[in-house]
Amino acid sequence: MKYFYNICLALAMIVGLAACQSGGGAATVKKDTSLLDAQAFKQKMDALSNELVLDLRTHGELHSVGPIAGARNVDFNAGVLDRIIPSMDKNQPIMLYCASGGRSGEATEKLKAAGFNEVYDLKGGITAWKAAGLPIQAHHHH
Question: Are 78 and 58 in contact (CB under 8 A)?
């Protein structure tokens, strides 16, 4: 029984350390998710001037629903994000979206773990953006 207690204690310490490193204990973790609905995401894009907007969808998905203006296509499923993380500026605000929010959520965690300071995730993905009546570009063949 004592052995089991030690494991619990060790886990609690690890979790406690992780929480402290994020900058202000557990209370700030909730606010820091940077999950923005479509309108807030658009406002944040308009407010920032140096943000990097990443469309994490596949090329096939881009054909069915075009990208947000200015977005760079980074196919998350093909592992492109992992390849470009080392060359990205950690102080630059990163805006992410995918089709419905699943991949962008994963990507947000990856970027935060890699030390990026400002990561914004479009809640509900391009689907929510389109539903909000926000502009989508036609996808051109390169």
Answer: yes
